[in-house]
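Protocol step 4 of 6: structure prediction from sequence.
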Amino acid sequence: MIVDILTDPTFEKPEDMAKAVLKESAAIVQMRDLWVLTHCWADGAKGLNYGPFGSTTEAEAFARKLSFGGTGRAIPLTSSGIALANHEGKAGWPGYCRDPECGHPPFTHSAASAARGQCQLTACGCAKFRKDPPKS
């Protein structure tokens, strides 16, 4: 991931490496679940909403620092990256099938005893969930 980019000797210019690092960082952030802080004033009127935050703890700490009146609540956002990866696959991503033709999450594979078997998505021909990348 990012370490691979930073140690890759094939980048000719630092700007190219920086661009690759930013692109990979954006992909990592897109795969995180995030939270927003919703706010209502004491009289019940809708307040301001803030976010995104990386955790409920981060959102609640932000609310305490602002100490505004009314009530606030941290609400989870489903990651668009995870939703797409669950549907389309995310090759090489930790926790997803490491079969190069698959990349789907474990729950899309059949339960074959204690292991995961064939991918159940009709467009995928993966025969077995792989935790490790195939050996070359």
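Step 5 (inspection) to follow. The CA atoms of residues 27 and 81 lie 8 Å apart.
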